[in-house]
Amino acid sequence: MDLPAEVDHSIHAMDNETAASNNQITFPFAFPRTGSYRIWVQVKIEGTVMTAVFDTEVEVVF
Hints:
With about 60 residues, the chain is mainly beta. It has strands at about 35-45, 50-60. The protein has a domain at about 30-60.
């Protein structure tokens, strides 16, 4: 994904609560506009930090 340097819709969110064991994760975030986004997710499991990157297309509907 090639984006101009001035494009930055960064958000840093942290949740210290223990997740339910339903294998789902949610993010309290509304994308500002339709387009391509790269999402980084970082979790710490038993002391090991793991990072994953996801590219996705978002359609904003109001």
